[in-house]
Amino acid sequence: MTRLWFRVGLALCASLALGLNLGLASSLPQPTSRGTAASGEVALFRPVFTLDQPLLVGSEIGRMEQQTEFRFPDKVSQGDRGWYVLDVTLEVEFAAAAPPDAGSYITVATGGYAAGLIHFVSERVNGQPAVRWDNLDLFNGNTRGNGNTRGLLFDRSVTLRFRNYLQVSGVRPGDSTLSLTLQHPAGDGVVTAARLLPGSGIGSSLVGPPSLKVEATVSPKQARVGETVTLDYQISNRGYPAREVGVAIGTSGPGLVAIDAPSQFFDWVAGAGVRGTSHFQMLAPGRHYLAVRVRGHTGGRPELLIPLDVLPANE
User: Fold this and answer.
1) Does residue 87 contact residue 203 with C-beta atoms inside 8 Å?
2) 3 state DSSP class of 302
3) What is the C-alpha to C-alpha distance for residues 281 and 90, in angstroms, rounded to an integer?
4) Beta strands 263-269 and 242-251: pairing type?
5) pLDDT number for residue 272
């Protein structure tokens, strides 16, 4: 059995966790990877509900969904003095001879709102049967080269542990449910059984999901053709550290040209974040714009558009 530890939760392809629009994960670990692959723990994580009996679904037992009841505090909402996190361990078994491209989805939800969804699909690699899986989460996001978000398996089973922030709609005061669902959208599935193991459950943290912010200033704010302006920017983050953050600075046309490299890349951005500087030379008079674009695998995609008036050169 392959055992992988990671933080996951796919956003149902469009908007799952906290209503954010997210894309599919794209990182590739080594086949049959074993051991630990993780980016850090949620700070001040505190259990709220812990499963004491397994949830079991599978086509062979004739049950594709199972749920258990638990209770949120009477006065609770996601992000109001705390954040609620799904923390589960899942055992998955695969068919011995699934047809090519047989797909299965495993969903874990609270109150009917998914916080974790993993896609499995069968294929052949060098003549061997294999299963490819992918997911996305607000801890690792669409993480390149990281074994937390996509994998290729040659074993008949795998154990996965994953975490993700719950949807806003999945956190409601009072009674709720924790559910496990197995689906085969095309009819033929590669997953035969899935078990949500005891110890899985819901926890809370004072640290919310990543949320990036960009600020920038240009000096001087007005320049002449042939002169140089300086752009200073700061990227900050409120919440769990944002992973693999890139910043690119573009111009509105040929009236400006970058003197130095206008792009940077950061593995992590936390708290007050990072600062950067770029320089541009003025080539033509008129109103021009500098666009500061930030792209994080987690934390969002903030942008700034800064106008810049360029005067003719002194004669």
Assistant:
1) yes
2) coil
3) 56
4) antiparallel
5) 81
